[in-house]
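Good morning C.,

I know you're traveling, so I'll keep this short. The sequence:
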Amino acid sequence: MKKYWILAAICTLLVGCRESLEDRCAREAKEYTEKNCPTKMDNNITLDSMTFERDTHTLHYYYTLTGFADQDSVLEKVDAVGALKEDLKNSTSLRVYKENKYRFAYTYRSGKDPKKIKLDVVFTDKDY
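The tokens, ready to paste straight into the viewer:
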């Protein structure tokens, strides 16, 4: 009988230690930012940080554009919104967040003028 009480106590502890999906997303975004940011995505794009906005369930990526990519209308010419949407649709690493209808936001700022937002887009479950 004593074995069952110990087993029940261990199970209770294990269940109590599970983090919510929101906590997991916030933790992973913070850890990624602390360990990897800023990260050069290519010669002209740098990922500055990732955050999780609990109230809207939004995973938000912040980028800085430099060089050629920082010119006016370049993002429209290359259909950046379409490319981001397609990447999101094909991303398997974000599957659990997509299954739970999280939102994904992308903000691109100018490297020459950080106050200037070149692109700000949010995708919902209807987009992916």
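Safe travels,
E.
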